[in-house]
Amino acid sequence: MVTLHITPTGSGTRDGSSAENAASIWAIDKMIGKAGAGGTVLLHADQGSYDLKYFLSITNGGAAGNPVTIKGVDAAGNPMNAEFTGTRAVEYSPTGTKGTEIFRLLDGADHVSFENMAFKNVQNAFRVGADVSGISIAHMQADNVQRFFENYASTGAMSAAISGLRIEDVDVTGFSKGAIRLQYDTHDVVIKDVHGDSERQDGDNFAIGIHFSGTVHDVLVKDTSMSNATDTIHSYWNGDGFAAEKNVYNLRFEDTYASGNTDAGYDLKSQSTVLLHAVAEDNKRNFRVWGDGVTIIDSQSIDPHYRGGTGGQAHVHLAVNSNLTIINSTLIDDDVKTVAIDLSEEYARVTLVDTEIYINEAARLLKLSTGSRALNDDGSKVIAHAYDAALAAQLRDASGPANVVVIPAPKPPPPIYAISPETNSVTEGTSGDVTVSFSVTRDGDVSAAGQATYAVSGMGANASDPTDFEGGVMPSGTVSFAAGETTKTITISVNGDRTVEANETFQVTLTGVNLGTITKNTTDVVILNDDIKPTVFTVLDK
């Protein structure tokens, strides 16, 4: 197997035969062709950044089962990210320079594997411009890009479909269009352990973390997250975590996460689409379904969040004539603005199987339109947790005789009080008084005002007595909590004196509360004596 070497500018004979005779980056396509099937091209990552103002065309490759591997390494040949820097504006702006592409894969660039690279301030790290097969992208980082990877036909090519694509272990921070876009008849795709965060780059029109269009099919997306896709330039704010258009099919998501997007976490027009262990959180519409045959299994929708534009926030939103099945999943939030299941477009239908819905007492569980229905399979159970049982009854009424169980949402537990710390100590001093403080905390339902009473008592063999405290009485009192308050302070004043005595101990006890319970009611305090017994000298006459 042939191994060849590349540095940013090349060195020695520049034939790529060794690190000392490395080819320049501009000879990469030639080196790929020279390495041939099963060969390796090493990008020396410790020789400086690969600063490019123009893209690198790749027209050579390997063979099925014997790809050419291009990877970043250090001087010892160990994996190290080779850094590519483009001309994109360092601080993103929709009017700023979009930047350069880095790798453009054209006709002939089949069975090529790219590993261990980092991209900064580029338009696309990878763009496929013609029909190719057997492409692998792994162990990558990208920062401030328009897109990390896409296929878009170059001049003279009718399409840029990819047969056999794997993208794995990639982190993309800062994108204005998306992390990955696939289109044409691309198929047999695995996207695994890919994480994208747009960092709120806005204004590049229709930001989508991972986007499938054309007739893309047979795709697995696994262990992947897309966050914060942002697009506020239209009256309806776009920006999706994952999106698939209507002719896409055989699409599967496993253990994926979409969060913080200004529109949908998952926006699915595709057919034969399954989401397993999917989590959508903090998107305007966590799951937005347009097509027929989408199934969500063992998944969660958490706290949808409207950030702006037309439309409202919902756990699930279905378009006209769409059909969705949700199995063994949970929808949960406590926002009055949320619609749990939005079927306000005509003839939309959702089938719920063993699914739980938790909503605020003032929120809408269901929103219906002409011909829209919420159903659940015979024998399955839908549990709607609502403070107002009438809200959950909307779902029962819409489902006819369906097996819908209404359970009042559990109220928070009564407040629980505790005093801390466990023990304390104070040095009494010789005059005046010193103070020692304690925290009284409460958890649970703290929506109402509350009170806790306390008292001080002596304890142990050397117990404190009233003379040890201000005013000559054992302290006691009440701490009052306003609604929402969780912490108050008790302060005890201890008298100082010049009496030589043993250390003394007292105990502060929470004696009662007006509502709730006490879990930790005592704390012990030692008054440390700091007086010294005078030394008596006897003078003897001789």
What's the SSE blueprint?
Elements: E1 3-7, E2 23-24, H1 28-35, E3 40-44, E4 50-51, E5 56-58, E6 68-73, E7 82-85, E8 103-105, E9 112-128, E10 132-151, E11 162-182, E12 187-197, E13 208-212, E14 217-222, E15 225-227, E16 240-244, E17 249-254, E18 257-259, E19 264-268, E20 271-276, E21 279-281, E22 285-289, E23 292-297, E24 300-302, E25 314-318, E26 323-327, E27 330-332, E28 339-343, E29 349-353, E30 355-358, E31 364-368, E32 373-375, E33 382-386, H2 389-398, E34 404-408, E35 416-420, E36 423-427, E37 433-443, E38 450-458, E39 476-481, E40 487-495, E41 504-513, E42 517-520, E43 522-528
Structural description of this entry:
- This protein has 542 residues and is mainly β.
- Helix 2 (389-398) links the parallel strand 33 and strand 34.
